[in-house]
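Posting this for the archive.
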Amino acid sequence: MTTSGDVESAARLVSFGMRPKQLPSRDVVYGDLVRRYGEDSAFKQLTHAVAAGLGLMVLEVNLQAGAVLAATDESVFEIKMDSYARQSKIRERRETEKVLHGLVHLATAALGYPRPDDLANDTYIGRVSVEQVDAMVREACRILDERAAQAEANNDPLADAPELEQAWRAYARRPAAAATKDGRLASDTTRGMVARALRFLADQGFLVQVSGEQGGTYRTTPRYQVQVRELAADAAFDDLLELNVVSVANGGGTLRAAASDTL
């Protein structure tokens, strides 16, 4: 029999999951609720029901990542592009600009977990940097541009949406880096765009900054791994990996873009 205390506990577990940087290892109550979720099937179902009532899906609950949630379509908790733009201080919100930021986030996920085994291994920690992500997107843009040129030469235009073609060409035209008068990275450069995206992911508990090298270097978190597992089911993720612009530099989990050697 479900009691009001059970409902309150389930709701509390969901609320912990909505605090991106809160971890079960740092909170006794959170840790106890996570363990109960894994051991009590009735409590697990109740937690899912509470989350669903709030327009959320429970992706995973474990002691490493905590309660990882995702907002359903039209949920009040869904992060819309306009909300992301405000949080990331994106000046332009045109369709092309939205696609550009989507490419950046897709590249970050692919760099963090370029192999299926990386997503399956709960102990795997990836590393990404601003320079690496920018190099990967630029290399992807170069490959896509070559494909488009070849298709046009063969009178066989690519079937991709026009806004995607505009996006990769717009990204390639932007300067990678330029300093402002006070020495900061200019916001209208591609690395400035990537830097904002990685800071946003860090604010959401998906990345942790480990150094200022390469424009800012970050490690992935278990929370991000769960999210990327969901993203990996998206065809766009596979398409990006199939461009072969990601390679693993060594067995220690340090990743680099294949194009970064030229930087």
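The chain has a mean pLDDT of 78. Residues 4-71 form one domain.
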